[in-house]
TrEMBL record:
It comes from Autumnicola patrickiae. It comes from the Bacteria. This is DUF4374 domain-containing protein.
């Protein structure tokens, strides 16, 4: 597929100063002995819950977190009441959380409000004790107050936030194109500072732009095997050339596109296009692309007219259009939609999804029941994981899977109902019930970290 080279509007590398003040959370216990800095065995596991505002399941009331030991999270008799006992994360709406690989540190960029865009990190000390460390830095001047970001799989060193300004219509006597300006910000998560930033326009081909197509969202960057390119997911939109307004009618979808930039310079952006997928690949609030042991990147699609696909990008940073993995075909469903997923190693991934015909939820009109499938990327096969499903099971906002050796930890609970952590052996597929999750009306769990 021919690449389309993009021209820069502006680019600048900046170094941000970390904040000078460091705030520590207080221990709420009455004795003089606080939580141990580390559990005696294993690692900390942090459960996250999203609080409703006026609408059940929307998570717009904020986010709370609570950490437990490996022994406790594996114990089906142990109760985790994150909504009653948890630590309130700094975010006006649902926080977009990341954690260190070993679970000892949580990372957050506040989403929305006066503190939107503030990056902070917390030492995990057990229970509701999350101690802010190393200051903070605000990236809102580059990525806005509601940034979309992930950390790279580079040893917990780097976070990447991306944004696109509201697309502007360029009209002379006739419609020409709609474009936004993209910004990429890299964060040094160890020193808590901005390490680089760059901004540029994202034009499509002249023919595509004349039809009104444009990119209005970027999300979920991933670092390639050579660690010299970032692959960034996109979400496409369309303007009606006749009116200059957003096209609300059904229209033909373009092949899935990803933005590729040099790393760490963030320069030389270009678009690559898949002829297998025709959906977006921006994900929502969690990782949507993963580097596998074979050096390839695997990427999920959403809003795909033929149901979600998992695409493959080669070490040459091009789509492999010979690799065809339709989730519809693998599961025998129609119009599947990958809500969140996680690659866990050895060609195995776990996919949260919904599809046509799934039971409608009782908590919010238009939502559907979600499911979890074990996916083999090598054989392009999938099977539903045996779990206690419910029409109000909702994974659209799900963020956190813990992969610890062969074990994969997930939170499974319908909106407003109690549930459990489940531990899945990624090699055998065996499912074990873990700690109990205590819920409150309208709230839901968005992961374990």
């Amino acid at each position: 597929m021919k690449k389309q080279f993009l021209r820069f509007f502006a680019g600048a590398a900046v170094i941000g100063l970390s904040g000078l003040s460091i705030s520590c959370s207080e221990d709420d216990t009455t004795d003089d002995i606080g939580p141990d800095p580390q559990p005696e065995t294993g690692r900390w596991f942090t459960v996250a819950g999203a609080i409703m505002d006026e609408t059940p399941g929307n998570g717009n009331g904020g986010t709370v977190i609570y950490s437990v030991s490996e022994e406790d999270i594996q114990d089906p008799e142990h109760e985790i009441n994150v909504f009653e006992n948890g630590f309130q994360v700094r975010s006006q709406r649902t926080a977009r959380l990341q954690s260190s690989v070993d679970g000892s540190t949580m990372f957050n960029i506040a989403y929305g409000g006066d503190i939107g865009g503030q990056f902070s990190k917390y030492a995990v000390n057990g229970g509701d004790d999350f101690e802010q460390i190393d200051g903070e830095v605000n990236i809102s001047q580059y990525a806005g107050t509601s940034p979309r970001w992930v950390k790279l799989f580079d040893g917990d060193q780097t976070g990447v936030a991306v944004s696109v300004t509201s697309p502007l219509v360029n009209e002379g006597e006739t419609y020409e194109y709609t474009r936004g300006t993209a910004t990429i910000v890299t964060l040094d998560m160890e020193e808590v500072l901005i390490s680089n930033t760059n901004s540029f326009e994202i034009p499509l081909s002249e023919e595509e732009e004349a039809q009104g197509y444009y990119i209005f969202r970027l999300d979920t960057p991933v670092l390639n095997a050579a660690q010299d390119k970032l692959i960034i997911g996109t979400w496409m939109g369309k303007t009606d050339p006749a009116t200059g307004e957003r096209d609300t009618n059904p229209y033909e979808r373009l092949g899935t596109k990803a933005l590729v930039v040099d790393y760490p310079s963030l320069e030389n952006p270009e678009l690559i296009t898949s002829s297998v997928g025709f959906g977006d690949n921006s994900g929502y609030r969690s990782f949507n692309s993963f580097l596998a042991e074979d050096g390839s990147i695997y990427q999920a699609t959403q809003r795909d007219p033929n149901g979600s696909h998992i695409l493959r990008i080669t070490e040459d940073n091009e789509y492999d259009n010979s690799y065809v993995f339709s989730l519809d075909d693998a599961l025998g469903v129609t119009n599947s939609y990958i809500e969140s997923w996680r690659y866990v190693g050895n060609n195995i991934a776990y996919v949260m999804y919904t599809h046509d015909g799934a039971a409608p939820s009782g908590f919010n009109e238009g939502n559907q029941q979600s499911f979890l499938a074990r996916v083999d990327l090598g054989s392009q096969t999938a099977e539903v994981v045996d779990l206690p499903y419910d029409p109000d099971m909702y994974f659209f906002q799900y963020q956190g899977f813990v992969v610890d050796g062969d074990n994969v930890y997930v939170t499974i609970a319908p909106v407003g109902q109690d549930g459990n952590v489940y531990i899945i052996n990624s090699v055998t597929g065996e499912v074990t019930k873990g700690a109990q999750l205590i819920n409150e009306p309208g709230n839901h769990f968005i992961g374990v970290f």
